[in-house]
Design goal:
By secondary structure, the protein is an alpha+beta fold. The protein contains 13 helices and five strands.
């Protein structure tokens, strides 16, 4: 539904078939997997081990000498396979689906609205054509009181065609539309011929039947070559992203080196300054500088001021030119880290949900659903915050993309430790006893 509401304006009135819409939604649905997979693992693990705890099967297993780690092992194997599937989704499936989704959506945006002729309303959807139909017979499809303004030859030579009635048909391949007009009049302004003895300002022809042909190429959905979109950061896998990062980083360094070399034409820099090491200050007396100037001091000062302004312009240009390059490097790095965070998030969610379910000992769709949704909201909000921090360069891409993992990993470690040691963390009686002991001591 979110996809439909976002792109409804681009698809409405285009005459897109259900097959194209279904294909577009199918490609877009791949982006839902990173949102659904961690939540499903969290919910299923809480429900599974909550049911085992509620029916005292976990207690029976522990009483038989089976550790919590051995109980977790079969489920962990399944989750590990799901984590590998998550990496496949992030690295292969989503880039391919995004490529096809972007290309198809671009073609839909470029397509013109379908030919929709209404009674008494001018239609301007065909380039260079403006037409009006007074009335349309809904049964036979016959048109009455037709007016067509044809400006395809230029505004200097407009053509006006009127007809009492007519019919409209499409060619077999859908490329051309034929208007068969009956009992009409054709008016055309003529270009003045200076070399002719006599020229006419316009030409009027009455006709009993005439056929007008319109090219409908712009109304057909023409597929664009998908290779035009393949360099987007969302359409690349890990190896391609790393290659882009390396090439852009090398390009950025070359720009800096070229600027440093070019600046030496105006100034002589110390190498330590280029290496971001602050050189020792040199104090030069003003009188010494004044005495060292040539006889024509005014020209020397003007030349020095011109060089300084030129250098400032060069530096400003380089900073502006490299700003977008740095942004692209950051976006590629964000996508590179995103390929791995989904797999790790699946494992972390299991080590949160499984011990949490064994501790609360509640199964079904009641409390586990509420708890899993709350935990997932925390994960999602932290993920969005880290992503925003990385994009705004307030944090490094690695820190921003792994922020949610760093927040949830201690929680999973703590819950796993509590489950392994039969903690009464969520046992009401344990908290009541703790409060009573605290009151008796005070």
């Amino acid at each position: 539904m979110q996809f439909i509401w976002i792109y409804i304006d681009d698809m409405a009135g285009k005459g897109i078939g259900l097959v194209v819409i279904a294909k577009l939604m199918f490609f877009f649905s791949a982006s839902i997997i990173p949102l659904a997979l961690p939540l499903s693992i969290l919910l299923s693990s809480i429900m599974t081990f909550g049911n085992l705890g509620e029916t005292y099967e976990l207690i029976a297993a522990k009483a038989a000498g089976v550790s919590i780690w051995r109980i977790f092992k079969p489920m962990f194997v399944v989750v590990f396979m799901l984590a590998l599937f998550g990496f496949f989704v992030s690295n292969v499936l989503i880039p391919q689906a995004t490529l096809k989704h972007k290309a198809l959506l671009y073609d839909i945006k470029q397509q013109k609205p379908t030919l929709l002729i209404r009674d008494g309303v001018f239609y301007n959807g065909i380039e260079g054509i403006s037409m009006r139909v007074g009335r349309k017979d809904p049964k036979t499809g016959e048109l009455f009181d037709i007016i067509i303004y044809d400006n395809r030859g230029g505004e200097q030579n407009p053509v006006v065609v009127t007809a009492q009635r007519g019919t409209m048909n499409m060619s077999e391949d859908g490329r051309y539309m034929f208007f068969n007009l009956f009992n009409g009049y054709r008016y055309e302004e003529m270009e003045k011929q200076s070399n002719y003895y006599k020229s006419y300002p316009h030409l009027g022809i009455s006709f009993a039947e005439e056929e007008v042909v319109f090219d409908m190429y712009a109304f057909n959905l023409n597929r664009t070559d998908e290779s035009l979109f393949k360099d987007g950061y969302q359409m690349l896998n890990v190896l391609e992203l790393q290659e882009k990062i390396d090439s852009l980083t090398e390009l950025l360094n070359n720009k800096y080196k070229y600027t440093y070399t070019y600046a030496n034409m105006y100034y002589r820099f110390n190498d330590s300054l280029y290496a971001h090491v602050k050189p020792a200050p040199v104090v030069v007396p003003v009188q010494y500088l004044a005495d060292s100037l040539p006889a024509d001091r005014a020209n020397a000062l003007t030349l020095a001021l011109s060089n300084a302004r030129s250098m400032k312009s060069i530096v400003d240009f380089v900073l502006t030119d490299t700003k977008e390059t740095r942004k692209m490097i950051i976006r590629y790095k964000i996508e590179w880290h995103r390929k791995f965070t989904l797999s790790v998030a699946c494992i972390i969610m299991f080590f949160i949900g499984a011990p949490f379910g064994s501790i609360i000992r509640k199964g079904g769709f009641g409390m586990p659903v509420v708890i899993s949704v709350l935990l997932y909201l925390v994960f999602h909000i932290v993920s969005l915050t880290g992503d925003k921090m990385a994009k705004t360069q307030s944090a490094s891409p690695a820190f921003g993309m792994w922020l949610s993992i760093m927040v949830l990993f201690p929680i999973g470690l703590f819950l796993t430790y509590q489950a392994a040691n039969d903690s009464g963390l969520f046992d009401k009686s344990a908290w009541v006893n703790l409060i009573r002991r605290f009151k008796t001591r005070t």
